[in-house]
């Protein structure tokens, strides 16, 4: 009974999320008056999954698996939801079968990694993720070509501009900071920057910064070695109650790297030193704009004499270094101090349209980042179809392994089938046509033609495909061995 309940709940969420898959997927209406959010239409599977508010065990398990993929690879929520749900709908597995399923998933991942190509066109990656929005793909491609760092903001119309700024690999310390914000990121204009080379644990360490933000009617950004305990709770409480809009992020790196990042951020924000407990350096300053999500943050700043002097000092330090590791670290630091960031402004005919497009741009940029790091494979379900054929051919003397490879092989076809179904086309017919075309073949549902993914520009980041498979088999191997449940009556 427990497994049947989980399967039913998972299927309900999967039906909504996967109906958005592909360039001809459907839009989903989201209305959340309980949290004061206006009605919106979206074709972004990640947004649909996040907005699904039924607190059922099956749906929550599926959401966690798909959101893990988005966090790891920047995109792929819809594919992960599709694969995980298809596997969850199987019959219960014994221990040997669950382990064989994981091994089959690893075989598929190894195959995809072996056929991945270096990304030759960021534009094609963006075009696939944006469902054919060529103007948006051109903007993202141009932004990556100029800068390599891209942030997205809302506006009245689409535009691209290059601004002075730096990107750091560290995101917000709590998702509660994002509760009152649209989309997956937080953006503050002209915030107070409280940069601390030390750990913030007590509320009294934050008093001066909070007072400054309140007096200036500005948001507060806290960047420290770490923010924990009562200090973090105080910032979250202020943010949720809208007393002072806040966000806290951890300075990236370790040891001296963490300290030098704080020093540079203090100069970027033209911070003035203050004294607080247990901190080697603490400054309060201001920047033009601050943007963060769960993985990274951007600071847009103005040039200053102090910043120019810091650049010269770091350049001298580079000339005196012989360690390859330190040379790499210092070059990264120089790049940030000389930083340029591409800012894409996303517009729309209405607030609903703008938010839907913003969601897709966020996903597209995540996909481009993953593709540039690990490479790409044929998109549109073709790569998973090839992986399906590959693992089916890996027969061995172990009957359990063969059985689970056959099961996973059937599931991996479902991405192509669902894209075709959402386009009113027979997936089985397209599968037969693709099987004789080689590894590079893809089906373009918009043009109704088959060709190479390089020519048609239909690509998927290999990391997205691999993480979707990994997450799906890991979840299914546990869910299909569930032996009971403890559920509050009101949540049944």
From TrEMBL:
Residues that span the membrane, as ranges: none
> Which organism does this sequence originate in?
Spironucleus salmonicida
**Family from the record:** Belongs to the chaperonin (HSP60) family.
For whether the record's keyword set contains Nucleotide-binding, the answer is yes
Q: Could you read off the lineage of the organism from its UniProt record? A: Eukaryota, Metamonada, Diplomonadida, Hexamitidae, Hexamitinae
Any Pfam family hit:
Cpn60_TCP1
> What is this protein identified as?
Chaperonin 60
Where, if anywhere, are coiled coils annotated?
Answer: none
Name the GO terms of the biological process aspect: protein refolding
Q: Which GO terms describe its molecular function?
A: ATP binding; ATP-dependent protein folding chaperone
